[in-house]
């Protein structure tokens, strides 16, 4: 906390400054690394990331995905196999051209995503229907030379993610896998208490090479939406160009069908910070908090020994119960300074232990989210804290979904849309489906058509908000990261 | 197992072929990736790696190391700060020179190790004695353009590792940290049942920029030693050039002292495979086996239902107990084929369930390491299996240390050393400590002086095996990877 300075942290008034303060003061990430667009994940931040990864990986593996690790480098020729894919990514790849003193015979690029690394191997591994479905995932970093302004967690040139790739015998099986991918991601976002909209992206905005793309968009206090995960149906597109064929039960060679999905860890962490945090700092869902409970002993003169010994008893009890606990017995700070510090780090529950508590063998528990205080007896401590964890999670989740509800509004005209964009809302409009009308929206109101709800048909309430023709869908428009 | 072919697997007779077969057939790694020196870690192999990482990370974090994640790219100017370090690594770094269509203003290199990425940030974070000690670790991949022959797991151009970096107020504290680093690594190797020698490397072979380097060397069936981890005392060397200073309690600016240590995951996995495996495949220590138990139902005609239902009962009981279990009820394979398959994958315990077992509510348990069969009652199943896990671990560990004992021999003359090198042993010789004598050994017997035991003084038995002068130490000589 040596960089700690007095600031007025205002999440709603000045999100940008608030977020930067969070990253620095809660030791989440540091963008003073001497290469633009590359940040360092610090101890507290990366501890949260590790727990999100763990939840995601466990779920992926329960659903039959094998963990793998592919090289970070892709040879230029493999990268250039799929035409849309090249167009989509070639402007933003990093090129390795030399090693030691030598110029390489063949340039290598850092993966911007791994399809072109993975498919040549899938082609070797998949021979017959018995090899399908093939499902793998990898936790890794990807590299994109972003030309837009970079921002730690939201948009960097190196970003942390997990990507899954699957191959199937037919389109129906691939379609079921898309649903499974969506369910896996829901599981993680739900556990983090994050609200989201699941949209089918317009064709002009789908993943390069995909049949269609789904995306989880979530709100941000500054009114821009944050894309935290995507799921893509690739059909036979990649299988064709990478010659991904298998022999079916009748001995016929057939093309496989593939899918892929990726969850950005930086953006998922950013959403967790942005949704739940407040003007005193982070508010972490207990499931990912590196420390779930902080014990602050409040020693009175002459009673130091009793208080500290009782605090140790509490610590030991919580550790035994598997709760991640930290005892803050740093002599250099006063209790109030410790409250301030651990509130900044977002530790879900604070246990205050003074002479009164030591005498009565009770504890004072303070929730980070509501600041509410309760008293529990030593015997009931573990149950009381687990109960608070549940309450905190429910409260965070409810608040996040209520906020999303609140962000979502409707507009019938371009003027109305413009005004609501300026209010930084996510706006539902009737749309004819023509990309030109979407581009017109972008030009006129600086908002993007993010897509239409997936698997939930919505009836347009009027004609297309741009051209006035019959509307076929309800589009979601917003500013974006 | 579609690549399964009939082979005569001979670990001791032909290690190289045996090892390649293991990688392919047990789905550990695949070096058919289209860039030389870059391999893919497949599902079974990477599942083992994940468990090793998890043990290591937990221990590092228990010992006060914060998990972090630094960028993979290092700017050329930061890399060139420490002179020995440049000399040591510059011939083998990969250079990024372009992004998209642009040539970069400043070349970036892929980290071959992370000191030069980490110290500029340590410099920002460390202000006063209160910021020390600072301990971090990161799990990441590093990149070295190896010009020697590459070999999956042993020597690649991308390798998986974990590296820890620490900064301290003085040399004594850094020295204590070196010991802690050694203990952390011991903890992991011990849990894997691996034997090793802990050597202080000769000065000419230390980490570029270090005061001294320690290394864990282990035996390999082909007689080459395999370096699985290193611990380095960096003194003030890096602190000086990166201006890593702090204000002590009296307000004086002082240089920090630093250490670092790295564990190679590929090589640690290679050792685990090479030490414990046999001519039927992998033999995995239960702690890292992705599946610890395989259940093979042996249905007899008319009894299929009872057998399968009993097998499911067993599966459920083991799962509840937290044992990683797989039920192999694949109709396409006969029981014998299943035994063969799961022996190849090294699953520690096989549970055979036939009509007799179903009737008697017993199980037949087969240990992977000794093939020994025992029978247990259903009620005692979990305890019996846990007991076997303990026995298997003890057996693997004992065998590995016995083998190391067996590998270690002595030589009094260069001729004797040469002959024992040809027998592919690790040879102890008296050495005067002069690098020229070490180089002479390399020239004459194709063996390398790996160093001297750390913290265990050994008395030389005679004069230096090369020059005949008084010997000051006992050097360990071997062929290497």
Distance between the termini of chain A: 29 Å
User: What oligomeric state is this?
Assistant: homodimer
The largest sheet of chain A, given as strand count, sense and whether it forms a barrel, is:
5 strands, mixed, barrel
User: What is the CATH topology of the largest domain in chain A?
Assistant: BirA Bifunctional Protein, domain 2
Q: Average pLDDT value of chain A?
A: 95
**Outline of chain A, from the CA principal axes?**
globular
Any idea what the CATH superfamily of the largest domain in chain A is called?
Bira Bifunctional Protein, Domain 2
The helix count of chain A comes to 14
CATH architecture of the largest domain in chain A: 2-Layer Sandwich
- Strand content of chain A is 25-35%
* Low-pLDDT residue intervals, each spanning 5 or more residues of chain A: 1-6
For the biggest β-sheet of chain A, the strand order reads 9-10-11-23-22
Domain unit count of chain A: 3
CATH domain class of the largest domain in chain A: Alpha Beta
